[in-house]
Design a protein that fits this description.
This protein is of the alpha+beta class. The chain has helices at residues 3-9, 64-73, 83-89, 97-104; strands spanning 19-25, 28-36, 41-46, 113-118. Strands 3-2-1-4 form a 4-stranded antiparallel sheet, with no helix packed on it. The radius of gyration is 15 Å and the shape is globular. The two termini are 23 Å apart.
Length: 119
């Protein structure tokens, strides 16, 4: 379901926390993730029944650690060869999954998932 279709057929919940991530497959909204980083709280809203398309799969109430693992899963690995060169190219001072996702939208070469960030 695209964001436009979602807005027409289902209500998008009010944002619970300062940061909202839209986990997308092509133009389909899969999961909305609201995040309160200082308090380490998250709230999720799934918009698909396909577990493999959900940000946290079968997990309905992910922990903040699950959220951090999810972010890192949408980045190149910490152990990647020549990582510092990649960070320099992206003008990122150190490995931080959120900073990387802000630059790459969490896009990976092997799939069509991506993340839109709202602050």
């Amino acid at each position: 379901m695209t964001e436009k279709e979602l807005r027409q057929t289902r209500s998008i919940p009010n944002r619970q926390y300062p940061l909202r991530l839209w986990y997308m497959f092509c133009e389909e909204v899969c999961t909305i993730i609201d995040v309160d980083e200082p308090r380490e709280r998250i709230e999720i809203y799934n918009f698909t029944d396909r577990l493999q398309f959900r940000a946290f799969g079968i997990v309905e109430h992910p922990s903040f650690e699950d959220y951090e693992d999810f972010l890192e899963s949408r980045c190149f690995p910490r152990s990647r060869d020549k990582m510092k060169i990649m960070l320099d190219i992206m003008e990122i001072p150190f490995y931080d999954p959120m900073l990387i996702i802000e630059k790459t939208e969490g896009r990976m070469a092997e799939d069509d998932f991506w993340i839109r960030i709202e602050r």
